[in-house]
Amino acid sequence: MPAVIKLSDQLVSDARPYAAAMHRSVPKQIEHWARLGKAAEENPDLPVGMIQELLISLEEAKAGKFSEYQFG
């Protein structure tokens, strides 16, 4: 459910170039950072890059973009 929250001007300003580079809206960029930060806090032993790849993998699986791993 969408909610109105107050964010600092600095956070919005910091998010703007990242949002443009990643073809996201500023709110979606901040949401992405929040999701990544939450996952990082829940998994402190994992590098952020690995967490990003895991989040991408989960979204790919939801979209049906996966195949069975072939050993050998």
List keywords for this structure.
mainly alpha, 72 residues, 3 helices
What is the average of the pLDDT values?
A: 93
Tell me what portion of residues adopts beta-strand conformation. Answer: under 5%
Radius of gyration: 15 Å
- Label the structural class: mainly alpha
Total number of helical segments? 3
* Main pleated sheet: none
Low-confidence stretches: none
Q: Separation of termini?
A: 46 Å
- Please state the overall shape, judged from the principal axes of the Cα atoms: elongated
Helix share, percent: 55-70%
Structure summary, number of beta strands: 0
Spell the H/E element sequence: HHH
At a glance:
With 72 residues, the chain is an all-alpha fold. Helices cover 62% and strands 0% of the residues. It has a domain at 15-62.
